Amino acid sequence: MNYTYILKCADGTLYTGWTNDIEKRLKAHNAGKGAKYTKGRRPVQLVYSEEFETREEAMKREYEIKQMTRKEKEALWGRPIC
After folding, report:
1. Would you give the DSSP letter of residue 61?
2. From CA 3, how far away is CA 42, in angstroms rounded?
3. Which pLDDT tens digit goes with each residue over 39-72?
């Protein structure tokens, strides 16, 4: 399976990505081995994930999420962040 996800960093910023192993990716971000964007913003919390059959579908959804405003992203999981 492939997943699109949104992480909320300790400073309130959001990070969107995709992976085929969401638990491993979350552990890597919290250990400081994730994307450069989240390295100085630990800990991170998974606030949204969506499952897809193919990598292409997950990557397409990640792109769509990156184009959203913060309010639209918050609406994905139904509660405000920060």
Report:
1. H
2. 21
3. 778 888 999 999 999 999 999 999 999 999 999 9
